[in-house]
Specification:
The protein is an alpha/beta fold and about 300 residues long. It has helices spanning about 1-25, 25-40, 115-125, 145-150, 225-240, 260-265, 275-285, 295-300, and strands spanning about 80-85, 90-100, 105, 125-130, 155-160, 170, 175-180, 180-185, 195-200, 205-210, 210-215, 215, 245-250, 260. The strands form three sheets. The protein has a six-stranded mixed β-sheet with strand order 1-2-3-4-5-6. It has a six-stranded mixed β-sheet with strand order 7-8-9-10-13-14. The chain is globular.
Length: about 300
């Protein structure tokens, strides 16, 4: 046992040295090395590993200006996962696929990046079953309508409570299946009436839309927003997930890509407060009006059914 432990420590020291050298020259290659090497012994981490702290938080190389998309592929589970970014509205789009059946789901697609998404889906040999939105977005037009034109058989989906039209209108407890995998719908209103969080079947990943952001949350000053409902939604539907559950938001404005339930319960500067304190904070954000709201909301109310 001691010999094995010593062998592991030496290997890890060598790995860290390799990472340090490679990270100076080619950051992406360094992260790939970490994923491939450590994945066999303790599971492949979400996104790019932050080996200094052992957390699943992603740190970008300073000064590069590069936004990578995250990768989380666990051969044992047969899951394909990609995290994609749209820079104008700082929106994350998530692609999940089944390695065996090649069926896939796309969460929160953006109109301007549909061609990028279609290219990736085709390169991976996937068949897109559903393009689902976590809510009726105010800061961008959904890509579901154009995806349906480009990928035969794809259906649009959104919450029944959103007031929007789509091929599929889901409610609390519904499932979006792709191969042997499924996303369970948890209604998390407060930012809008129709906000939902999609939870992977084993509760290892959750896609929180605008309800819960990394160290923040969605605003509540328009589109049926209600601070009290949002606070209750997060505490009852998201913070009750396992602490290790990885949280993927619909947006981030600081270069962060992933968090966990445990992290947000400890460090979220708004949602760690009392309800009254939270309501006060949300009432005094004084945020500007979303730039695309006047065109985005009408288009998204006919989610995936409008002419593009």
């Amino acid at each position: 046992m001691c010999m094995l432990l010593g062998h592991y420590c030496l290997n890890r020291q060598a790995l860290l040295l390799q990472y340090s050298v490679l990270n100076t020259v080619r950051p992406a290659l360094a992260r790939t090395l970490i994923l491939r090497t450590e994945g066999h012994s303790r599971g492949i981490l979400a996104g790019f590993a932050h080996i200094n702290t052992g957390t699943d938080r992603v740190t970008q190389p300073r000064g590069t200006g590069i936004r990578h998309y995250g990768v989380r592929m666990e051969p044992g589970k047969g899951l394909i996962f990609r995290q994609l970014f749209e820079s104008i509205s700082s929106t994350y789009t998530y692609l999940l696929g089944d390695k065996e059946t090649k069926e896939a789901v796309l969460i929160d697609p953006v109109l301007e990046t549909v061609d990028r998404d279609v290219k990736l889906i085709e390169e991976l040999g996937l068949t897109l079953k559903v393009a689902a939105n976590t809510h009726c977005h105010a800061d961008h037009i959904t890509g579901t309508g154009l995806l349906k034109k480009k990928l035969y058989g794809c259906k649009s989906a959104i919450s029944r409570l959103s007031g929007a039209n789509a091929d599929i209108l889901f409610s609390e407890g519904d499932h979006i299946t792709f191969g042997k995998h499924a996303l369970t719908v948890r209604e998390t209103p407060g930012h809008t009436d129709g906000c939902v969080t999609f939870v992977l079947g084993d509760q290892s990943m959750a896609f929180t839309g605008d309800a819960l952001l990394i160290r923040g949350c969605g605003r509540t000053d328009f589109q049926q927003g209600c601070s009290k409902r949002l606070y209750e939604s997060v505490h009852q539907k998201i913070f009750t997930l396992p602490g290790h559950c990885l949280l993927y938001p619909a947006h981030d404005y600081k270069g962060q890509t992933v968090s966990t339930v445990e992290e947000e319960k400890k460090f979220n500067p708004r949602l760690t407060k009392t309800l009254d304190e939270f309501v006060h904070i949300m009432a005094n954000l004084n945020l500007p009006k979303p730039a695309q709201i006047d065109i985005a909301v009408p288009a998204n109310l006919v989610c995936g059914l409008h002419e593009v």
